[in-house]
Design brief:
- The chain is mainly alpha-helical.
- Among the domains are: 4-82, no CATH class; 176-244.
- It has helices at 9-20, 52-56, 104-115, 119-127, 139-160, 176-199, 204-234, 271-282, 311-319, 334-341, 345-351; strands spanning 24-25, 49-50, 60-66, 77-82.
- It has a two-stranded antiparallel sheet with strand order 1-2. A two-stranded antiparallel sheet has the order 3-4.
- The termini are far apart.
- Mean pLDDT is 81; it is low at 1-5.
Amino acid sequence: MIEAESITTRTQDVVDWLEGQGFLLQSEKDIHTRSGSGTQQDMVIDLTFANETACGQGMLQNHIVNPDLALLSDHHALTFTIGDPREVITNITEAKYNWKDAKEDVFVEALYQELHKDPILYEMTIHQVLNRDCTHASNQELDDAVRLINTCMEHAAEKSIPTCRMCSRSKPWWNGALTTAFNEMRTARDMAKSYYQHFNCQSIIMNTEFKMLCKRALQLVKTSKRDYYNKLTEEANERNMWDFRKWMNRKWTYTSLVLSRGEGVEPAISHSDKCKILRTTLFPPQPQLTNEPPIDLEPRDEDMTYHEVTKREVHNMLFTAALMNAPRITGMTSKAYCWTWSIMEEELYHLV
């Protein structure tokens, strides 16, 4: 890729170090990664290397130079897949539903229909257990009631809450005007570049138009960002104000390293094998006590005095929590339980 006479001492030292560490070049030969402007030529300046372990396990896949993702940069985007693409790993803790765009009345109506789909089951499992007159309930009855409520909430969410989808650009302030502006800018850039390649001279009109569209796109980006974040700060309250610190945080996802199973045993490479090792190592079976004391739940005089929880306390506990907190595996957030309170106030109170 590089002419021998143009290699400097520093460049040769870098190449020798990469070869000594076992790094292999993943980029294809003569694939340009930077577009030249004006009289400059296209160059290969961005390269991707991988060590012997990653190459031997085939962890780096689908390495592509994509100029369409460059946006305003003259450097092309390098995209690749880490890990075996044949092994699909489902993130069960990932947010399933878009609660930001959900409507309360639609969810409550769907939940009401799910709860009363089987009136006999609702009466026996929930109404007869979670009410003021029922003073005693077994653990099995409470578990069945909670399980039915959660199941109905999950079914209602599937029908009424929009699902989360990956956005082509993970920018909440992006809008249709920006998409149109960037498409026009790319078209003008490609036309100016094509004109230079065919006629070997610059078109002043095309270059001027490209610069004007580029300036307009950047101005739209600043305006969209300002309007979006101004709206967020104006609508801030005691529940979501602490989420603003997350603006500076980044989310990185890496493929975990190979885990050793011990001397003479094949290492764990697949996701399932790694999970099995972590479970057996971090969560071993509980030891059996030789003289395990019996469980005594009989009331005694020295027991602490029980104070009944009021409905106001349950309401405050539920509604003062962050509405958009981390969802459970089922995808339910605090907002879902706050909406459920409107039609199951008595049941949720007696459940607590």
